[in-house]
What does this fold into?
Amino acid sequence: MIAVIDFGSQYTQLIARRIRECKVYSEIFSCRMPIKEILKKDIKGLILSGGPGSVYKIRPQVFEKFFKTDIPILGICYGMQLAASVLGGKVIHSAKREYGHASIRVMSAPLFTTVPRTFRVWMSHGDSVVRLPRNARVIARTATTPIAGFVHGNVYALQFHPEVRHTQHGMKIIRNFLTSICHAPRLWSMTRFVDQEVARIRETVGKERVICAVSGGIDSTVAAALATKAVGKRLKSIFVDNGLLRHNEPQEVEQTIGKYVNLKVVHAQHRFLSKLKNVKDPEHKRKIIGREFIRVFETEAKSVKGIHYLVQGTLYPDVIESGQGIGPSAVIKSHHNVGGLPKRMRLRVIEPLRMLFKDEVRKIAKVIGLPSAFINRKPFPGPGLAVRIVGAVTEDRLRMLRAADHLLDVEASALKNIHAIWQIFAILLPLGSVGVMGDQRTYDAVCAIRAVRSDDGMTADWVRLPHAFLARVSSRITNEIKGINRVVFDITSKPPSTIEWE
Ligand code: XMP
It folds into this structure.
């Protein structure tokens, strides 16, 4: 395997993902884990990630052991600075910080085989290596950073981030490291991932019982299907109809997912809607929905004796946005699926997808054999339509939004590029606006349409939908849905907006 040592970078998972894309197996280890333990594994190469720290504030000698082996090492950003200081070079806080794009010139080195001499890279550093270790050679430089990469024996170091898409030829550089330098076998695949996770769940759970909350989305379904492969009927999956779902969703979930997992549908619409009455604040709504969900789930779980584990379909972007990654990341929204459930119920959590991105989960769903209509379902937030009704949630507003969303969905299914769209949905605004219908004045609700492209939900761009499509949807919504007399189109990306309105 390739071991990625995490020093708290936002990009650590991206490094692991790029390694998977090269069909090589990798595992991430915290930099706080004893090095002896890490080196016991069969490691073909080590990647030291970036991180928010400064090497002159720590004792780099702690990490000397990595450099005493003959395992090839690639240090990225902070990892490069760490390599430089351990090997006897010098790192200082530089007056010339570099954030964003830079043009780099690279010298001949196995890392750069088939890579042009000059290309664009992504930089993000305030510290710089200003003196090389003895016997090291510079292999990359930019206008502001004369030492933007070096090699020292089998240690390679890069100040820029080859793992991010903004760096040209980044994948080639990573592939060169894995294949020509580490000679890592290219044996990893999604099928292997499935086998490995199923075996891991089986071993963890032993003879105990497991419970899982299925939301109707691909993440929790894939997690539940993996666990079902591991423990069969000892997994009970619960689907809560919270009254905030899309048109026909409870029935569809029961029909599709029920084929793959042992599923119980709990009808709790009234409970959720009564708790949400007159609540307007988005975070308050999310908290209420999260809390009620836990209560419903707990009651259900109590009806089964001897449950010790909870399977969750948490993905890596959920972990990062909820501020639970290793690095210092801020809480943007409290995603309820990584909430307080396990602690309260004293359950141990199994999160087989925690390190993966959405498109990787789709590939796993294919390996498991889930139907393609289900695999291509768009993401839907845990708090459901409540975070798409800006302001208070009422039965009538749910009716309007559900109908608008369904109509949009039906129309969108005919779009040529529908597969390239991450999400397309309707939002109901807390605004009345004046209209005229059949010579009568109306004072009705405004509905917004949002369509975004995204790779992982962490950033997104709005989709330039064809005007004819927008015209048809607008006319159908205002004609067919009582209570809406105006349709607007959201033209903001993420950042600065988020994908959901609340
Ligand atoms: P935002 O609105 O944060 O959304 O830009 C990013 C992606 O996450 C989905 N989302 C959620 N998913 N529970 C979820 O499972 C949540 O609480 C939640 N909030 C947002 C959103 O639909 C988008 O795909």
